[in-house]
Amino acid sequence: SAAYRSSFFNPAQHAQHGVALATARAGNVIGGGDWAKDRLIPDILAAFEAGKQVPIRNPHATRPWQHVLEPLRGYLTLAERLYTDGTACAEGWNFGPHSDDAKPVEWIVKELAERWSQGASWQVDAGEHPHEASYLKLDISKAAQRLHWHPVLRLGGALGLIVDWARARQGGADMRAFTQQQIAQYQQLAFTNA
Fold first, then answer.
1. Count of domains in the chain?
2. At how many degrees (to 10) do helices 105-116 and 155-170 cross?
3. For residue 155, which of 32, 38, 101, 150 is within the disulfide window of CB 3.0 to 4.6 Å?
């Protein structure tokens, strides 16, 4: 994207084209309502709901997990700054969790099993699996310093929101209203910690 920006929306010619183009990247985004195939948390919750044991491929793989509302707030902050400050923010940005919230898969599944409780079980799948990087992390220091953005949810809180969402859905709740309530709670937390 840096080459695209330089070729078509070069910050040096901002007066001619009027476009401030940035690139944003998030960590491993998690949240209620994710039913994507072959994704850790949707697979765990589906197994727990069905009363099945969860097979875990790479228990020591560490990822920068973050609730979906965190990078969305980062993207909106960046969009606002692109609008108000133009080319000052026309570059690449990372929006991720606190560095100590990059946790291994095993920690995630144990935490979810504890929060889910009834019938939640898992085991390491010893079969052959495609290679995956063992450790992924994002440096969010630029977003923290220049955009004054930082994550406000800790990983345990994010997992709590996800389990609450899944339980509400399982119980037949109005999921639009429930989701709006979770967004409002997150906004309150974000504004309190801004």
1. 1
2. 40
3. 101
Tokens standing for residue 138: 């994002």
Task: For helices 175-192 and 69-85, give the axis angle rounded to 10 degrees.
Answer: 60
Residue 194 has pLDDT above 80, yes or no: no
Q: What is the pLDDT of residues 2-35, one digit of tens each?
A: 899 999 999 999 999 999 999 999 999 999 999 9
Host domain of residue 131: 22-192
State the pTM of this model: 0.92
Distance CA 87, CA 11 (A): 6
CATH for 59? 3.90.25.10
- In-domain check, residue 67: yes
Is the CB of residue 54 less than 8 Å from the CB of residue 4?
no
Q: Does residue 16 sit within a domain?
A: no
The token pair at 101 is 């919230």
